[in-house]
Amino acid sequence: MRIGYLPVAVPNPIDRPKQLRARAERALRALCGCLALLVLNACSSDALFLDRWVLAVDGAAKGAVRLPAHLEAHGLPARDVVYTLTASVELPEHLRGQALDLVIPRMWARTSLTADGTPGLALRPEHAGAYRQCGPHVHRVPASVTRDGRVTLELRVLHRWTQSGWVDTLPRLVRAGVAEPAAQRSEFFNVFLAMGGTLTLLQIGFSSLFSFFLERGLRVYLWLGIQATLGASYPLFAFGFTQRLAGRYDVPFLGAALVLAFWASVRFSYELFGIQRQPRFWNALAGVGVAVSFAGFGPYHATAWAGEPESWWVVSPSYTRSPCAYARCAAAARSARHGSTLPLGSRSHSPAGTTSPCGAVLGMCGAAP
User: Fold this and answer.
1) Nearest one of 160, 67, 62 to 111, comparing CA atoms
2) Are 271 and 223 a contacting pair, CB within 8 Å?
3) Most CB atoms within 10 A, among 67, 232, 345, 351?
4) Beta bridge partners of residue 114, listed in sequence order
5) CB contact set of 131 (below 8 Å; sequence gap of 6+)
6) Mean pLDDT, to the nearest integer, of 247-262?
7) What are all long-range contacts of 40-44, with beta carbons under 8 Å and residues at least 24 apart?
8) Cα–Cα distances in Å, from 201 out to 20, 116, 196, 205, 235?
């Protein structure tokens, strides 16, 4: 299977800036509309926010905490424990005498609730083998305990990894069955968009790998396929699929996969722009990143080891390739103005007389004379 040549329409250099400006304006209006809807939706909530709680670890009181907070700063140990957060709540008139929902938009832990000693019904439970919940937590408080206007809530949390002690969103009480805006946004971004991102990245990855196996010389597709497939590990982690495979030890594998995805993106850039000399620095940096990911293999060390250190030392240097890539693409665009036919793709390390892989991008972007 050969990749042939296709004629590329010659754009009018005068009209192109106008078209780009019009597209940017439409995108900006759409973004502003989405933001306005989110703000109006957030303002429409009549939720009762609960920020003052009392922390106890395995029955031993640790003192009052004000949420949001990372509870390791309040005495939560880095080991498997069960901790509770207790709050005595004075209900406003519009929430008395009816069933309520305690909603936590995002908290990566398994939770259960009791209200005045009565177990609350978990409306969105995770599967039995999960150690964290990826969507919002919603617990039903029965109407029988809200009639007198005062209720004591006890939230029981299974502490199974570092971030199960991070309460980054305020718990809130709403009328039973009422959609809570922050919980909806959390579910949309952390679950539904994550699923869509997974499908998109896997489709790109598998299609690119398939193209490489059909035409072995197109190594640019090999690196694009590896990058997209490994990059899908993050949305898979976000909506909880990886914990079905690796349990509480999925974070180190996630860190290693993302490091290798960025390493593949660097190799992809070199292949795409026809840079045959590829420094070994990137290989060494990726090896260090993978080693760092697995150095903190335990669930209470993986976040510290595979999180911020890798972001600074492995991921950030990869982005330094972007200015170089843009500069090379601009130079290639200027040099491509002498012809009106551009290839769809080319072989890496091709012999004299063939076209640079940059022609693929220039052809798809319309960078013709």
Assistant:
1) 160
2) yes
3) 232
4) 119, 154
5) 110, 158, 160, 161, 164, 243, 247, 248, 299
6) 89
7) 41/181, 41/184, 42/181, 42/182, 44/181
8) 26, 47, 9, 6, 9
pLDDT class for 235, splitting at 50, 70, 90? very high
Question: Does 218 have pLDDT greater than 80?
Answer: yes
- Asked if the model's pLDDT at residue 18 lies above 80, the reply is no
Q: Which of 169, 136, 168, 139 is nearest to 154 (CA)?
A: 139
Alpha-carbon span 196 to 188, nearest angstrom: 10
Tell me the C-alpha to C-alpha distance, in Å, between residue 137 and each of 84, 184, 188, 195.
Answer: 15, 11, 14, 19
* Predicted TM-score of the model (pTM): 0.74
CA atoms within 13 A on the CB side of 359: 25
Q: Which of 269, 302, 267, 296 is nearest to 281 (CA)?
A: 267
CB 51 within 8 A of CB 23: no
Q: Give the Cβ contact number of residue 96 at 10 Å.
A: 16
Cα 247 to its chain centre, rounded Å, is: 19
Helices (H), the chain: 15-43, 181-187, 193-214, 219-231, 233-238, 242-246, 250-272, 281-295, 302-306, 308-310, 316-319, 321-335, 358-365
Structure tokens at 184: 């909806």
All residues at 6 or more sequence positions from 23 whose CB lies less than 8 Å from its CB, including other chains: none
Q: How far apart are CA 158 and CA 332, in angstroms?
A: 56
Q: What is the DSSP letter of 190?
A: I
More confident: 138 or 271: 138
Place of tokens 């035409």: 215
